[in-house]
Amino acid sequence: MLIVYxxxxxxxxxxxxxxxxSDAGKQSGLIRLLVSDRVKGGLKxxxxxxxxxxxxxxxxxxxxxxxVITVLAGLLAAxxxxxxxxxxxxxxxxxxxIRNGYQGSPKNVRIRVRDIQTEESQVIDVKVSERxxxxxxxxxxxxxxxxxxxxxxxxxxxxLDRITEDMDFPTSIKGCPFRISWRTDDPLLISSKGVLxxxxxxxxxxxxxxxEGIVIGIHAELSYEDYLYETHMTGxxxxxxxxxxxxxxxxxxxxxxxxxxxxxxxEYLVLPERVENIGLVYEEVGGKNxxxxxxxxxxxxxxxxxREDQELINRVRRRDMELMNDYxxxxxxxxxxxxxxxxxxxxxxxxxxxxxxxxxxxxxxNRRDTGKKENSKRRDIxxxxxxxxxxxxxxxxxxxxxxGMGETAAYEAFAARCGLNRYRQFxxxxxxxxxxxxxxxxxxxxxxxxxxxxxxxxxxxxxxxEAGTKLLxxxxxMLLIVLIIVMVPAFVTFRM
Length: 496
Fold this sequence. Notes:
Elements: H1 2-21, H2 24-34, H3 37-46, H4 52-87, E1 91-92, E2 96-98, E3 107-115, E4 121-128, H5 135-152, E5 179-184, H6 198-207, E6 214-224, E7 227-237, H7 248-262, E8 268-270, E9 274-275, E10 278-284, H8 288-339, H9 344-370, H10 389-402, H11 407-418, H12 421-436, H13 441-495
Antiparallel strand pairs: 1-2, 2-8, 3-4, 3-10, 5-6, 6-7, 9-10
């Protein structure tokens, strides 16, 4: 797998370099194979017509680069994982597995067992216990631990001959593998945790003379697996299933488990080379985790690739929302100027002229504030301060009319680019008035303006309700945090 990951990573690196350094013609040829009608429609809505093709190439270049680089990162991670796994392989010399240290954790190694005669193979999971101390080593450590216990257990007491305070019975000692359990001859007087019960001491004082102290036996039991060591001190208080048939893998696993337990004092676990006259060859099974990692990265790369499509959809939604918010203002201005005697073309030109003046003024101010010159290339209008989708589309429509397109055809193309029913309805009213000379256009525009403002208010209410719903989950989290802050100290105080 290491070679496969390395070759795949090299191929992707070459692809990224060639793709990004190739000319636009070759790039566009690849992108035409990937582009979808939905994405093409979204690009036409978000960008101006003359920028759509170039923006489409940039959009898909970004998607391809993000996805490919993500896969490359996954391949490199899998390559590194395999490299590290090779360096820390559990199988040595074909049939030896090194154990973890004395106080380490058991090691799980997956190996493949192959029959030399039949070439059949099976995979088994071998558990190798950590290295075990020998009896002499345990006896020496127990003696050392005994000396440490004698000092630690006293806590605030001067000696065992005069116990007046609680004792400290440790359950383990740093550097020793023992688990320590305690008991006393009078657990009501001194508990197994070393706590001295003074009420018990007072009751004993009422029954007998304890001026010479109360003699009590203290016993510590140090255990490590099947090894047991006991120390006793005296203080004075002033307080197989043989019938079952196993497969080769099952029988071998049982045999390895037995070998593991019987050779824990050895540095290595030596796997059997033969089982019932069957020669065995062992191979460590690896690479599964790296393949899983690579699959996860590929899924992530696909998600990031299609995330750009979702981002484009979100931008289209924001554009449509902006157009709907600007629609009542547009209709209201048409009503105002139409009632003043301007023609439809005159109103359109005036709105475009006013917007152009305001836009240029805002851009000059922005350049003056930032001290940067604006790039001569046309950028995403969402990134240009003061630019509005509606009026940019109106400027484009005016340019069509100035180039000789019929007024009605230009308006209909404008409505088609906007892609919203409200604008189609508005352009339909204007087109009918231009074609048939309807005298009731002004009242119809007034009703349309009123309906548009009503719809805008209703939409604002819906957005407010959606905002309240979105805040519900954070409010629940805050409530949970407040409950934790209030209840946890109360429970702690109650238990104490």
